[in-house]
Amino acid sequence: MILRHDTEPMPAPAALRPSPIAWLIAPALLLFVLFFVLPFSVMAVMSVYSGNPVTNPNAFLTTRHYMRFIVDDADIFHDALWATLKIGFITTVISLLIGYPLAHWMARMQSRLGHVLVLMAVIAPLLTGIVVRTFAWMTILQDKGVINTTLMSWGLISKPLPLMYNEFGTVVALVHIYVPFMVLTLTGVIGRIDERLEQAARSLGAGRIRAFVEVTLPLSLPGVLAGSLLVFALSISAYVTPSLMGGNDVLTLPMLIAQQVGTSFNPNFAGALGMILLVVCLIIVIAYNKILTRLTGEKGLA
Amino acid sequence: MISRRSILRAGTGLAAATTLGAPTILHAQASTLKITTWGGKWGDIMKATVLPAFEKEFKCTVSADQAFPYVPKLQASSKNDPLYDVLQTNSNEQWNCFTEGLVMDKVSVKDVPNVADVYPYAVSDKIVGVTIFTSAIGLGYRTDKGITPPKSWKDLADPKLAGARGSYLIPVNSLGQCHLMMLGKVYGKGLQDLDAAYKALELLKPIKLVDFTGQMEKMLLSAEVNEGVIHDSGVYRYEGDNRQPVDFCSPTEGVVALEQVLSVTPGSKVKQLAYAYMDYMLRPDVQKLLAEAVWYSPANKKVKLAEKYDTKLLTTPEKVATLIQPDWKWYNARKEDIDGRVTKILKS
Fold first, then answer.
1. Is B21 inside any structural domain?
2. Is the predicted pLDDT of residue B11 greater than 50, yes or no?
3. Are A141 and A216 in a shared domain?
4. Which pLDDT value is given to residue B298?
5. How much is the pLDDT for B118?
6. Which of A242, A276, B197, B273 is 20 to 30 A distant from B19 in Cα terms?
């Protein structure tokens, strides 16, 4: 009996067999590789070539696209990067200021029906395309738009207020488009905070504001972090809204990238601009994560 | 009597015949012409009428891409097996493609017989491939805002139009690029006088800039601008039941040609079919149909348009002579520098 067992082939060690979890993760991993790693790698490779190495045998390795950005003879690339980050930062802060109270109200809402209705109101704009929502803002904010026409017909202003074709109009439209992402992220986090902690603070003599600042706000910081990063990432990569709302006053890196691909037909420089935007954003995100981690004493997201 | 053996024999024979005939069948199936074409009303007519008739006559299928921009997609595809057989774009993009070896230069009368009937501008040395239609770039203006109808390109700089004049983001729109070159001609020594053009741009501030012609139409219709750079078809189409208080001015210094150009890719496997398509698009009946639908001036001299189109579009040698064709090869070679310069100038 023992002899027979010894002569039978040994079963494969459990460690070599793929676990069921690995099989479950495999499709997601495949998608990640196909739709992120691969395009990203292509972009990175293109950014260090003079042309397309697949279709052009004369393409050679070069750093000229990065040098072009660094030297910035045209004096527009650094401005574009700064404008991108500035618009992203302002949009994030305003979205947080609008989104936090709304998310808090939703999370603490006792009525289930009320919660569903407000949730639907928050989600509803997402069902309309970004182009449509941006065009809607154009009809409201342009010189002959709803606001300026109304104010002029009432005699309150003699010439249109500069509501569009500038950073102001761009930020207004971006905030409207991205606030739902902030609200949805925060609602989940605030909803999981035990209300009794706040009640305990109040029973120990803390006022409503102090209980919020010292109990609820610190506990909701992971949500603030996640929501802010999401809105910041979406804002700095926005193309349609800054293009339509910004006029000649706003030039962001995504606009420059689209310009390089679509009208200058220079995908290599576009790749370099994309890499630069990615690296700058990663640095900002890591720094932001570290600061918030230090403030909360918790583990960050990145 | 049909035996099992005879059925098997017949089946084997059929299979053999099918196998032997496969290349022919495959060849017939492979006759797909891949083209680019515009969307909107143009695209509707192409898909409903023009392309089905071509497919029927030439026993092929046409795969039409309407998702702009086409050139980056062509750049990304193999030169030996290009994404398109026929590329339809404006002239500036054709020159980019020609410089990169993505499209072929001229077409001959032998390959495209209708080329013999086109106006000289359609095959001039400023053109890669062949022009099938053109529009005239000039000034569109509101007729209900009390502004003096423009006569010259200089009229756009009228101080009364401050903030109510419009043009295009020069780095992304060929009409904006044409406007810049016209400023060089009107205020300086010629289309290539960039210093004069840059100075003239300063005179136009404040100006509303958009990135595509549809947006300029929308701005004119909503009176967001009272006068702006636009192609004639973008104004003339608002007539009849669709009438709007807008009109088009062909400035005395001339109008710039906005050509719709066809070219063939060197790696196309169906070049004869591609030439046949070019020839078909230059046929008088096809030209008339499309010209009257979207108010484009036909390149074929033999086209007879209905009177209301004929009076406004460029349909005689005299009217065609007012067309100015920019040297896109020259412009494209300097585009990066120009883009940087004009972006700085126009940013307020």
1. no
2. no
3. yes
4. 98
5. 98
6. B273
SS3 B283: coil
Residue A172 domain-assigned? yes
Of A52, A75, A247, the CB nearest to B340: A75
The answer to the question of residue B67 being in a domain is yes
Give the residue on B whose Cα is nearest the Cα of A74: B340
Do A235 and A196 share a structural domain? yes
Chain B: nearest CA to A98, how far in angstroms?
30
3-state class of B34 per DSSP?
strand
What angle do the packed helices B51-58 and B271-281 form, to 10 degrees?
130
Percent of residues, chain A, with pLDDT higher than 90: 77
How does pLDDT run across B215-245, given as a tens digit for each residue? 999 999 999 999 999 999 999 999 988 899 9
Range of the domain at B226: 137-256+328-346
With a threshold of 0.90, does the pTM exceed it? no
The number of folded domains in chain B is: 2
Identify the pLDDT of residue A133. 94
Length of chain B: 348
| B193 and B155 in a common domain | yes
* Domain contains A301: no
Mean pLDDT of B285-313: 97
Let me know whether B53 and B99 are in one domain.
yes
* Residue B76 at interface with chain A, using a CB cutoff of 8 Å: yes
Query: For A8-31, what is the mean pLDDT?
Result: 76
Residue range of the domain that includes A55: 20-62
**CATH code (residue B341):** 3.40.190.10
Cβ atoms within 10 Å of B96's Cβ, excluding its own: 22
Please report residues of B whose CB lies closer than 8 A to that of A259: 171-172, 339
ipTM for the assembly: 0.82
Residue A69 lies in a domain: no
Report long-range pairs for B198-206 (Cβ below 8 Å, ≥24 apart). Answer: B198/B341, B198/B342, B198/B345, B200/B157, B201/B342, B201/B345, B201/B346, B202/B345, B203/B157, B204/B156, B204/B157, B204/B165, B204/B167, B205/B346, B205/B348, B206/B162, B206/B163, B206/B348
Question: Which segments of chain A does DSSP mark as H helices, in order?
Answer: 2-7, 20-32, 38-47, 64-71, 77-107, 112-123, 130-141, 146-153, 167-191, 195-203, 208-211, 217-236, 240-246, 253-262, 267-296
Interface A-B: count of C-beta contacts within 8 A: 72
For chain A, the domain total comes to 2
